Structures are given as structure tokens and as C-alpha cells.
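Posting for a labmate who doesn't have an account.
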Amino acid sequence: MDPRLAELLREKRTLWVRRGDEEVRATYWTANAGRNQDEYLRLCWIMRDLRADRVFAMNRVLLDTLAGVQAWLARSGIQAPIELHSGYRTRKTNNSTEGAARDSRHVVGQAADISVPGVSSVKLAGLASVLGRGGTGFYVGRGFVHVDSGDERIWLDQGKPKPASPGM
């Protein structure tokens, strides 16, 4: 674990996640008691595939990265939930999601597309790439950042190019 992340998560690992009208604040690990399975399962529930109504065991490295990002922001004075755009996806949901990679980490519970109110996507992507042990995708103009616990990599998606104007 990155030393900065380890320091942020030394005492406890907590996530505050909002998805639509649902919201979960869960401390899924503490230094004194270790893992709290009930709180972990609450996080898995909010990160479920909504289309298929399926829950999956979310990767703890991913959760630690998200908790670290949130802890860093809190130390900087930003107290806000992580807005979850997408967590776990079944293969069927992934295949019907525009722009989703065929081998997406979402289908194995290792990815989340997130935003944080009041935090730019650029700052959020930077924090995730520094604190995380996986991939970080920055999607220009889409309002979210992809974070996963797969291979270490960073990418920029500028979206579809706009068609040229007639007469140009």
C-alpha cells in the first residue's frame, strides 16, 4: 500500500457513498476490530448493478483507494460524499453500456465511476492516481472519473469528436 494511503487509513477505513436517493456511511475496517462484514456488505449493496439488481463482492483495494481519496479530501476541508455513477456491472449490463471496455474491471467488482461535489474531475483523477494501486480514467466533459484496482495505468478519454461544420 502506498505510504500516504496507509497513513490516511491507519485507524479506520470509512466511505460515505451516495447513489441517487441512496446513501451509505460505512466504516468497514478499524485498527482495533479489523474488518466489519456488515458495513462491507452495505457498501457492496450500494455499489450493485442497478439494471440487473445484482450484488457482488467489491474489491477491498478499490474500497481502500476510495476511502483514501475521501480521507484526503476531508483533511483538506472537503466533507462530501462520493457520488457513485457505476460500480459493479454484470456482463450483460457492461455490454450495453456505451463506451465500456469488453474486459472492464466493473464486471469483477474492481471498478467504480465516481465524482465528488465541489471537486473537479482533474483533482479527483489526480488523487486517485496518486493514492490508488490500479487504473484511473479521466473522461473529459462526462462528469466522472474511473477508478479501479487493476493494472496501474492512467488514461484520458476526450469523448467523441464533434462533426465538422458544413463549409469548413
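Reply:
Got it, the C-alpha cells are right above this. Helices lie at 3-8, 37-46, 60-75, 91-95, 121-131.
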